[in-house]
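Postdoc handover notes: sequence design on the structure in folder B. Input tokens:
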């Protein structure tokens, strides 16, 4: 495993991190809690030390699962969670009001069963709450020792500039993969110029880049809503993605790796990416994800993948 400092902080995190959205058990199909706990343990055993979660994942359920999984190994992991987005039935509600933030961090600490969060992130911008009010409350919570470092997710350059005038942040969590690279235009240069880290999510495009689907999957919307978030599964985009999947499989075969490992390795070796977050529903997936950091794609392979990615993205209907 490779380890990197997150932005200008003293947090040293694994190049592959564990994303836990699936552990909410309401977005990525049926997930067994015991398997999830075993996956967290296997990830840590394999060198992954960053675990990213959020209250919005299963209305707190993912945090509870993570809390159980890290019992006895708290000193081995960097825990990242979020505020500002919660569930109201099937809906995700954005609320960065000071009262909501304080309630959420107290609940997160209880569910995770920890005394302090390592990385506390604003999950999504809230257009209805002045950012100054949110930051003022967050700074109070930091002073109280509730979390170590502040970060943001899904912010554009202007919002990052705005919050950076009020307080220090150390990283951004944006969506980034071979199928979604819009952050390369303005956001990555800004992050590099300002020594901010990047925890990229959606590394496998909701699973499509694993190459495991021979045909376009039909998800059960009640328990598996990934197609609503990742448009690559839609009928109008499915065929467009297949030439990229084919290339991933070819390079995987040449390297003795899986297509998922190739997609992850490409991501963690792109400019500005500190850590690629990847989900794992079981021990096998967790170990496989971790091993994606243990080899190097050639310059030619990286270029081939980037070129094919450019071609495919140009034709996606998003």
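Designed sequence:
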């Amino acid at each position: 495993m490779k380890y990197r400092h997150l932005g200008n902080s003293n947090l040293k995190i694994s190049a592959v991190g564990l994303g836990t959205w699936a552990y909410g058990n309401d977005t990525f199909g049926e997930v067994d809690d015991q398997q999830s706990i075993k996956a967290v343990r296997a990830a840590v055993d394999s060198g992954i030390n960053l675990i990213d979660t959020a209250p919005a994942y299963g209305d707190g359920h993912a945090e509870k699962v993570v809390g159980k999984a890290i019992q006895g190994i708290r000193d081995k992991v960097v825990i990242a969670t979020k505020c500002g987005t919660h569930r109201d039935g099937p809906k995700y509600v954005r609320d960065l009001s000071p009262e909501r933030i304080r309630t959420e961090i107290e609940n997160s600490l209880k569910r995770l069963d920890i005394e302090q969060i390592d990385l506390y992130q604003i999950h999504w911008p809230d257009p209805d709450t002045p950012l100054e009010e949110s930051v003022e409350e967050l700074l109070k919570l930091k002073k109280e020792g509730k979390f170590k470092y502040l970060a943001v997710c899904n912010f554009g350059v202007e919002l990052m500039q705005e919050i950076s005038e009020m307080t220090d942040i150390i990283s951004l969590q944006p969506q980034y993969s071979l199928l979604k690279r819009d952050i390369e235009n303005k956001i990555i240069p800004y992050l590099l110029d300002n020594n901010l880290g990047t925890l990229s999510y959606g590394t496998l495009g909701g699973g499509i880049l694993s190459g495991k689907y021979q045909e376009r999957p039909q998800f059960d919307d009640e328990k598996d809503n990934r197609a609503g978030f990742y448009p690559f599964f839609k009928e109008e985009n499915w065929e467009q993605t297949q030439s990229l999947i084919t290339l991933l499989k070819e390079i995987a075969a040449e390297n003795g790796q899986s297509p998922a490992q190739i997609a992850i390795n490409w991501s963690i070796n792109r400019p500005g990416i500190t850590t690629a977050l990847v989900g794992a529903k079981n021990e096998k997936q967790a170990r496989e994800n971790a091993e994606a950091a243990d080899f190097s794609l050639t310059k030619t392979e990286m270029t081939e993948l980037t070129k094919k990615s450019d071609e495919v993205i140009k034709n996606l209907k998003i």
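Context for whoever picks this up: The CA atoms of residues 84 and 96 lie 5 Å apart. Don't rerun without checking with the PI first.
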